[in-house]
Amino acid sequence: MKRIIIINGPNLNLLGTREPEVYGNQSFENYLQSLKEKFPAEQLEYFQNNVEGEIINKLHEAGMDAHGIIINPGGYSHTSVAIADAIEAIKTPVVEVHISNVHAREDFRQVLLTARNCRGVISGLGLMGYEAAIRYLLKNYELTIDELRTNRNSTYTLYVTVSRNYALPSAYCQLLFALSHCS
């Protein structure tokens, strides 16, 4: 059983009610249950906080022994050098996920300070981006922590432009195929 921690940042506690045209109408708690059903052999843990320091504390806590971390820093992606530094300081590989396509939004959202220290970025797949990140982390389990840190400069970034109605079957299948062939 591999332990994967999902960390969501500010305002992501409002998923399902906040801007459903951008973020969808499903709560993360409901989506998390479906993830646990898809990955019953894995230990999926979830943490959400609106406070930057608490997110850093969770990264420090989980970052030395978890198999992988999936983080959606929310608005802190664009502003937090401290979260970027925390990601860089830990041993566990981190994949950054954004529900919306940040590159199709306002200019300031296109700068991701946290991304440079992550193993990869998945943006624009709706909540399905979390599943893609889990699959990536599980597929690359055979890589050691030292190999991941050594190859940090070869970060994979995936940007997918999708319609806001989240009708993604072909893009999603192409993504999972690409992730399954990452070395």
Highlighted features:
183 residues, alpha/beta, 6-stranded parallel sheet, 36% helix, disordered C terminus
What this model shows, in words?
With 183 residues, the protein is of the alpha/beta class. It is 36% helix and 16% strand. The chain is built from 7 helices and 6 strands; from the N terminus they run βααβαβαββααβα. It has a 6-stranded parallel sheet, with helices on both faces. Helix 4 links the parallel strand 3 (68-72) and strand 4. The radius of gyration is 15 Å and the shape is globular.
Total number of helical segments?
7
Which regions contain 5 or more consecutive residues with pLDDT less than 50? 142-149, 151-183
> What is the ordering of alpha helices and beta strands?
EHHEHEHEEHHEH
The radius of gyration computed from the alpha-carbon positions, rounded to a whole number of angstroms, is 15 Å
Instruction: State the total count of DSSP E strands.
Output: 6
Helix proportion of residues, in percent? 25-40%
Return the average pLDDT rounded to an integer: 80
Q: Which structural class do the helices and strands define?
A: alpha/beta
Distance between the termini: 22 Å
- Report the biggest beta sheet as strand number plus sense, adding barrel if it closes: 6 strands, parallel
Which band does the percent of strand residues land in? 15-25%
- Across the major sheet, the strand order is 2-1-3-4-5-6
Characterize the overall form.
globular
